[in-house]
Amino acid sequence: MNTIIRCAANHRSRMAAKQLIYPAAERNKDPILSVLQQYIEQGADKIFLEIASGSGQHVAHFAQQFPQILFYPSEYESRLLESIAAHTNGLTNVKRPLKIDITTDFHTWDGKITPESNVNFHKSLKLQDSSWGLRDINDLKALAEKNGIKLINIIDMPANNKTIIWKKMSITR
């Protein structure tokens, strides 16, 4: 019995060691949740795809609040995929994180990146990988429309962030 408990404890500590914790994600999870509560329809058989899930802190928080939703987190970096898996370990309504590359040509948000904190964030992304960076919302809209996805709303959030609500449109024949 001690061996089983020790193995379970070792597994939990390995998972916890892979969990990345970002203070900004902690600060933003409840304001984002408030927005999602306005847009997520009640009922079963709902699917939520989170693009660029980061550390996994948000999707783990949201999944606990919406047990009827099946969440698909996504990210590009392996260490972030591991962190997402660690944060969502044991949550039955969260699928294994998907590796998705959403790289598109960079421009700006409607012509200009503001404020300075977002300019600095963009630069930090570019330093990590030259293909990363903030994307122009008009480019994202065009790409989404080509794939049957409609922009529903852009909500200003604390600390100059935005929550962008997209919806996959029904295919009519």
TrEMBL record:
Transmembrane segments: none
Domain of life of the organism encoding this protein: Eukaryota
SUPFAM superfamilies linked to this entry: S-adenosyl-L-methionine-dependent methyltransferases
Pfam families assigned to the protein according to its UniProt record, in alphabetical order: DUF938 (PF06080)
Family to which the UniProt record says this protein belongs: Belongs to the UPF0585 family.
Name of the protein in its database record: Methyltransferase-like 26
Organism for this UniProt entry: Tetragonisca angustula
